[in-house]
Amino acid sequence: MLSTECELLSNQLVAPDHYVMQILAPEIARASLPGQFVHLRIPRTMDPLLRRPLSVMLADKVHGHLRLLVRAAGRGTEIIVALPSGASVDLLGPLGSPFPMPDEIDGGSDKDVLLVAGGVGVAPLVCLADAMRSLDDTPYIRSMFGASTEDMLVCWTELAARSDEFSVATEDGSAGEEGLITEVLAGQLERGHARVVYGCGPAAMMAEVARMSAEAGVPCYCSFEQRMGCGVGACLSCAIGAAGGGYLRVCKDGPVFNAEQVDWEAIRDE
Amino acid sequence: MLSTECELLSNQLVAPDHYVMQILAPEIARASLPGQFVHLRIPRTMDPLLRRPLSVMLADKVHGHLRLLVRAAGRGTEIIVALPSGASVDLLGPLGSPFPMPDEIDGGSDKDVLLVAGGVGVAPLVCLADAMRSLDDTPYIRSMFGASTEDMLVCWTELAARSDEFSVATEDGSAGEEGLITEVLAGQLERGHARVVYGCGPAAMMAEVARMSAEAGVPCYCSFEQRMGCGVGACLSCAIGAAGGGYLRVCKDGPVFNAEQVDWEAIRDE
Amino acid sequence: MSEACPDLSVRIGSLVLPNPVMTASGTFGYGLEYADICDLSRLGAVVIKAATVAPRVGNRPPRIVETAAGMLNAIGLQNPGADAIIAEKLPELAGFGVPIIANLAGECVDDYVLLADKFAACGHVAALELNISCPNVEGGMAFGVCPEMTAELVGSVRAITDLPLITKLSPNVTDITEIAVAAVTAGSDALSMINTLLGMSIDVRRRRPLLGNATGGLSGPAIRPVAVRCVWQVYDVVDVPIIGSGGIMCVEDALEFIMAGASAVAIGTANFVNPLAGTEILDGLVDYCQSNGIKDISEIVGVAHG
Amino acid sequence: MSEACPDLSVRIGSLVLPNPVMTASGTFGYGLEYADICDLSRLGAVVIKAATVAPRVGNRPPRIVETAAGMLNAIGLQNPGADAIIAEKLPELAGFGVPIIANLAGECVDDYVLLADKFAACGHVAALELNISCPNVEGGMAFGVCPEMTAELVGSVRAITDLPLITKLSPNVTDITEIAVAAVTAGSDALSMINTLLGMSIDVRRRRPLLGNATGGLSGPAIRPVAVRCVWQVYDVVDVPIIGSGGIMCVEDALEFIMAGASAVAIGTANFVNPLAGTEILDGLVDYCQSNGIKDISEIVGVAHG
Ligand SMILES: Cc1cc2nc3c(=O)[nH]c(=O)nc-3n(C[C@H](O)[C@H](O)[C@H](O)COP(=O)(O)OP(=O)(O)OC[C@H]3O[C@@H](n4cnc5c(N)ncnc54)[C@H](O)[C@@H]3O)c2cc1C
Ligand SMILES: Cc1cc2nc3c(=O)[nH]c(=O)nc-3n(C[C@H](O)[C@H](O)[C@H](O)COP(=O)(O)OP(=O)(O)OC[C@H]3O[C@@H](n4cnc5c(N)ncnc54)[C@H](O)[C@@H]3O)c2cc1C
Ligand SMILES: Cc1cc2nc3c(=O)[nH]c(=O)nc-3n(C[C@H](O)[C@H](O)[C@H](O)COP(=O)(O)O)c2cc1C
Ligand SMILES: Cc1cc2nc3c(=O)[nH]c(=O)nc-3n(C[C@H](O)[C@H](O)[C@H](O)COP(=O)(O)O)c2cc1C
Ligand code: FES
Ligand code: FES
Fold first, then answer.
1. Separation in Å, CA of A154 to nearest CA in chain B
2. Which of A242, B200, C40, D276 has a 20 to 30 A CA-CA distance from D260?
3. Which partners does chain D have (≥3 C-beta pairs < 8 Å)?
4. β-strand C70-73 against C64-67: which pairing, if any?
């Protein structure tokens, strides 16, 4: 874990309200694993005051670049995405527990890996796909990406380029299947050839992904979001309901959890 | 009085901690008179929250440019001077009561006008000298500029270029006379040819300028500073002691006051 | 989505204001200072700077200092006195056709009664706001922190005037609901909250308090969470309209207060940042109502209580 | 200018801390979470997250929301209970050689007495901080707003332990000096102030409170002026050391508290913004003392009182 002031190399609008930020952060890039995040703040201002958690979409360990995909979701991220290239950002990271690699999961090594992305949830899955491609024993990667409309399939090429198969669903049918990405997932699970499902997206989507995976008897790992204070496990701000009662810390115990660990009811009610 | 979002055209370091900011603000430039100020804030941030008062150093009415001289004196001005060119600034102005022109003052129209500047106090005096030069009956302008050291004679050429005579004093003798600018003023007042003294600078300097002018029987106008809230006379934040007791509002009754109006004791004690 | 103009009017006792956006006392002078930049006639009301019986010169400077997302002030109730305000300020402000609310500050019950009498007699004010919560004068908060004194004060003023009475509460108390109930029981037609939080700032370089008065009142966005909480708590225990204030900078902030239980909002520190804050927030409320199918703003007052 | 190393040590009852910079309870976990980025051994003390007798799961999320220059939290005292903390956290933290202060939270006097007993017995803690001011649990503030209850609580714990006792005060009271005096009279060796201000924030889109617990505690730079004022007021009425906290982000802020009367400072929300805040502020204090010829930091404690 490092806290460093870094240069924002570029900041590009890639879809309405969505930006890809490239940041020079060699140590963090080298250390980061898929599913981990950085806790970002703008130095020397109190507006916003706190850091904002952002998943690492790509860590270029050679050049020391981090690539983040940022959606302007509120006051803080609006100020962040407005930063000009050349600006300073302060990063704390890499933080959190990464996705387990397929070989760490008991699921049948001949089977496929399914990646299900919704919206900016694509970011950690790009990172995961990237890492899986450089494994000795690269799995067959089937990726699915859902969004409301074509525009919102942000950075889909990044995911597609790292997948063996890639499907898309949009709610308005402007690209790929018309409907929810979980319908695409249903088809994939039916094929009975899935070893593990990795998901990241809106809570409702992930809940459905988890439910379907459980039904199909396939292990499922999802990356979660919660409002954060410290990002390092100290403040207990980032609680989400645990399956057995009590709470888990998204920043430290997660952000990636086995779908069986979390209390989906509580998450939906929040 | 206008409130407008304007473009910062350029922002140049002119001395350690001192910047000249050029801003595109046609209506304010056209309306502003020497000694008036703008109340500046950075849009869309709460850090800093309030506006900061800054004197107009030059108002180019043809091109609609305002030139401000800004010293990074604390947190707020540090953030302001760090703005890149192209940034937006929000200006409220022009505000305050301007310097009276020499012809509005009863002091003998054949005599000279004395300008006494200290530090960034040079800004409104540049504006005043500029305006006097375009009067039908331009007075003879003798300007004096004092600073701790040569470096701090910020924008001296701006003042010198608009004066008939120009003298300098530095406390360390690195430029002009060694000592305080009030010693230079003493010599000028002794000549008995002064019609009015205009001063702007640190409170201690202005107090001495006022005392000497009064002793010499010459009218004296100074531009004052005080922490401000509204800038328009509504909140009563910017009080300075009045000669007859009670308080004056720097933003509305001033910032320019006849030296006889103010309670110099109270100002020194603050 | 309804495009019809929503009903924004607010009733405070016998008074009906055209809309819920007013200016907070002490932050908008006598309105006149802002007349050439802000269309005063559009405001729900202008609450003028606190008036005292005799003129007051105010505190020694510095009177203000910026703090993180806020400011401290210690103006010290500078004002020319009720008679001068009535003679020199109100007629001109009344000419703009905006309801005027007088903010009254006294040292004893008799002061408030006298002030209420004067302002009621002048014919220019639509309501009286009893400032029992100004932290910047010696003893200025005594009424606002004690339910019995609050009740006595409100009751005494109630007895001599039919003008709508608003009591302005201090957040510097252990239990604001206690004071709120006391004021309403004694006859207050509405409550205004919150006045500033007592704070201070030290000039580290000079090793002494920054304000001439040492302590001052904290206002601005920094205090909004405290103000929203006060409105939220008091809404549950009284049946009169609440005028919410404390760091309202934009329409979302105003909606936060309304949803917590405020029927109207007062814009304070925001005027210094943006002199058009009041009218912009009003525009924002109209937009919000239209795009959310709200026909009467009262539909969302207190809605966050569920 | 003296280049000799200034004396920064602070005495709290029988305890001498190496320097006045500690972490504020609840913002630094059990220290261990920050061990790989912050040199814990340099801190004056680590105040651990509040401990209760039984484990507590805490409040339902969301538990935190950023506000203007501040944040609201409603963690709800989540902790594994005193026994687990003593067994699983303290030995490891003690290994870093930093003084440990346990922050105790109970529902009744007996809870505090039991907690004090457990922590005193474990041998790892240097002092006890009685948290009588947490606004995020039902009844959690009852002690902190009433001088009599404060006195009873402090007296009861005082009776059973020789460990230095610190009482942590709430700012959500009409008169903090009253509570301060009660705590000191009952035997508190030091006072810690301030805990968070009670606040809330509403999610305008969803028309309901943003925090799962509705209200929460406001911390961060936004509250600094209130905190400095509390320290300023209490310094005048007690003779024990004050540990100041509330929005301290940098060395100037720490100096503000010290000059207002604090003998030590606790860094809270700043840890989230900058995990090195504590040690950087310590470095800053050393620099400040050296460049201002201060040989002992106590020379400037309360200096702004003149
Ligand atoms: C581990 C993790 C990884 C993330 N990765 C990404 C990413 O790669 N790209 C991206 O665009 N966003 C990501 N997010 C979400 C991002 O952190 C939030 O959108 C951001 O914090 C919102 O800040 P704001 O000030 O703009 O929003 P606010 O004004 O505070 O709120 C706007 C909206 O954002 C939600 N929100 C606020 N804070 C958080 C938070 N900490 N986590 C989740 N939602 C929040 C609120 O519920 C609200 O609806 C991630 C969050 C987590 C926890
Ligand atoms: C009418 C007027 C015209 C001015 N013109 C100029 C100008 O042309 N160029 C320029 O550089 N500065 C000018 N100033 C001063 C400038 O406004 C302050 O330096 C600035 O507000 C300080 O803000 P800060 O946040 O950086 O300082 P802070 O961090 O608030 O304080 C730093 C220092 O600045 C002083 N200060 C703070 N606020 C004010 C204030 N409102 N007025 C005066 N001093 C203050 C404090 O006493 C302190 O010593 C003018 C002030 C006034 C009232
Ligand atoms: C400079 C200043 C002067 C004020 N004067 C008064 C006053 O005279 N009477 C009063 O009741 N409140 C006064 N207040 C309090 C405001 O009316 C308002 O209640 C408070 O500032 C909170 O709102 P805000 O955060 O939007 O400013 C004053 C506030 C400021 C900032
Ligand atoms: C997330 C969070 C949790 C906290 N938990 C506790 C606690 O358990 N016990 C306690 O006495 N204070 C607790 N506090 C209060 C802090 O210790 C501190 O007094 C307060 O936050 C003010 O300091 P700050 O503004 O520097 O954060 C907590 C504060 C925060 C932000
Ligand atoms: S954000 Fe602090 S524990 Fe997770
Ligand atoms: S700054 Fe408000 S009256 Fe001068």
1. 27
2. D276
3. A, B, C
4. antiparallel
Mean pLDDT lowest for which of B182-191, C83-92, D47-56, D275-284? B182-191
Answer yes or no: is C286 within a domain. yes
Rounded distance between C-alpha atoms, residue B181 and residue B147, angstroms = 8
| Cα dihedral value C46, C50, C55, C58, nearest 10 | -120
pLDDT at B186: 93
pTM tops 0.90, yes or no? yes
Any domain includes D206: no
Q: Which chains touch B (3 or more CB pairs under 8 A)?
A: A, C, D
Q: Is C27 in the pocket of ligand 3 (CB under 6 A)?
A: yes
What confidence score (pLDDT) does residue D1 get? 43
For residues B199 and B210, the answer to whether their CB atoms sit within 8 Å is: yes
Strand C10-12, strand C15-17: pairing = antiparallel
Residue C41 belongs to some domain of the structure: yes
Query: Which pLDDT value is given to residue D140?
Result: 55
Examine residue D67 and state whether it is found in any structural domain, yes or no. no
Domain hosting residue C228, numbered range: 10-60+74-200+217-305
Say whether B17 sits in a helix, a strand or coil: coil
Please name the amino acid found at residue C152.
Answer: E
In DSSP terms, which residues pair with D203 in a beta bridge?
D208
Which of D64, D72, D178, D200 has the highest number of chain C CBs within 10 A, making it the mutation to test binding with C?
A: D200
Q: Where are the domains of chain B?
A: 2-95, 102-222
Distance from the Cα of residue C69 to its chain's centroid: 20
CA distance linking residue C188 with residue A190, whole number of Å: 69
Identify the pLDDT of residue D2: 45
Q: Which residue has the tokens 């402090």?
A: D154
Span C238-276, pLDDT tens digits: 999 999 999 999 999 999 999 999 999 999 999 999 999
Instruction: Kindly report the CATH class assigned to B2-95.
Output: mainly beta
Q: Per the CB < 8 Å rule, is B227 touching C63? A: yes
Total number of domains constituting chain C: 1
Q: Is C69 on the interface with A (CB under 8 A)?
A: yes
Other Cβ atoms less than 10 A from the Cβ of C174: the count is 17
C64 touching B (Cβ < 8 Å) = yes
pLDDT-derived band at D134, boundaries 50, 70, 90: low
CATH number at residue D246: 3.20.20.70
Residues D1-31: tens digit of each pLDDT: 446 789 999 999 899 999 999 999 999 999 9
| Residue B192, Ramachandran bin (φ over 0: left; ψ between -120 and 50: alpha; else beta) | left
CB atoms within 10 A of CB A109: 11
Alpha-carbon Rg for chain B in angstroms: 18
Q: Which two tokens stand for residue B98?
A: 């301007």
Contact between residue C271 and residue C248 where contact means Cβ atoms under 8 Å apart: no
pLDDT at A240 over 60: yes
Which residue, among C228, C77, B83, has the nearest Cα to D218 in the 3D structure? Answer: C228
pLDDT of D139 higher than 60: no
Of 3.30.43.10, 3.30.565.10, 3.40.50.80, 3.40.50.150, the CATH number of B102-222 is 3.40.50.80
Residue C4: the pLDDT is 73
List strand residue ranges (DSSP E) for chain A, in order: 2-15, 18-24, 37-41, 52-55, 58-60, 65-71, 88-95, 112-118, 141-147, 165-170, 177-178, 194-200, 220-223, 239-241, 247-249, 256-258
Report phi then psi at B182, rounded to 5.
-65, -25
Distance CA D280, CA D298 (A): 20
CA distance A136 to B241: 80
| Contact indicator for D85, D75 with CB cutoff of 8 Å | no
Mean pLDDT, chain A, integer: 94
Residues, chain B: 270
